[in-house]
Write a structure and sequence with these properties.
Elements (H helix, E strand, L loop, with lengths): L2 H17 L3 E4 L13 E17 L8 E17 L3 E9 L6 E8 L2 E6 L4 H13 L4 E7 L4 E6 L7 E4 L3 E2 L4 E9 L1 H10 L4 H8 L3 E11 L1 H4 L5 E17 L13 E4 L10 E4 L3
Parallel strand pairs: 1-2
Antiparallel strand pairs: 2-3, 3-13, 4-8, 4-11, 5-6, 5-9, 5-10, 7-8, 12-13, 14-15
Helix pairs in contact: 1-4
Amino acid sequence: MNTYSLVQKAIYDWVILALGSISCVWEDQDVKESEISFPYISLKLANLNQIGRDYKSRADVYGVAKITGNRESLLLVNCFGSKKAAIIKTITDNAGTYTSGSIKVIVNGTTVTQTYSTDKNSTLTLLAAAIANLSSVKTCVYSSSLHTITITPEYGTVLEVSLDLALVVGTMTMTVATSGQISPTEILSMLVASLSIESVRLANSVANVVIIENDPVKDISAILDDKSERRAQVAFIVRWANEIVDSTVGIIESVEIIESVRITRNSTNHDKDLVIDSTP
C-alpha cells in the first residue's frame, strides 16, 4: 500500500471514528445511489502540493531507492442530508411505583445494571450516572419531574438503547424514544470538534497525517437553491510525510576502472596487439 492510500485510510478512519455510523464515501468512488443512506459524508483531496525538496536515498543491493518528502493537500468535506440525523435517546417511565429489584439498560451492546437504592428517584439518578460513564455517551441526565432519562451520544455516535425490566418490582414501566435531531451543519461541526480528541490525533499519526481546520463550516443549501437537500461543507489542510519507491535505478555493481587493458590475439594470423583505452 502506497503512502497516498494510507493517507486516504487515515482520513476515512477519522471521519468514521468521529461521526459513528454515518455513511462516508470518496467523491470519485464508484458507489450506487441505493447503497448510500442520508445523511452521508463526501470526501475529496484537492490541490496536492509538494513542501520543500524531496530526498532520494542511495539504491540498495536490489537497485531500489526511496524518495521521501512532505506533501500538503486541501480536504473538502461535504455533508448531504434530505433529512436530519437523530442522536438523542430518551427513556421515559410511566410514573409508576418502583420498590425493589434492578433495572438493566443496554447501550450499544453494553449492559448497565442498577440495583434499587433508597427510593425510585435516587435509583434512577444512579442509573443515569452509570450510563454517563460509557465511552459512547456524552451526557446522561435524569429528571424526576419529567420522569425521563436523556442520553446524548459522544461526537455523533449513533446510540442503540434497549431495556430489561424483568427484575423490577412495582408498577413502573419504561419506553425508549429518539429525538434531538441534528443538521448537516451540526454534523460537520462535530467533525471539527473531534480534532481536539487525543485518540483521533493518535489514529492519524499512524500514517504521519496532520489534519488542520482551514475554513469554518458553511451551510450551502441556499447556494444550491434546493431546499429539499440540505448540504454543508468544511475544508481542512492535510499534511503528511510522503514516501515512494524508485525501482528504475537498477542494480549497480562495483566496477574497477583500469587505465588500459592489453588483449593479445593469436599471432599466427598476424593480428597485432590491441590496446583498449577504458579511461572514462
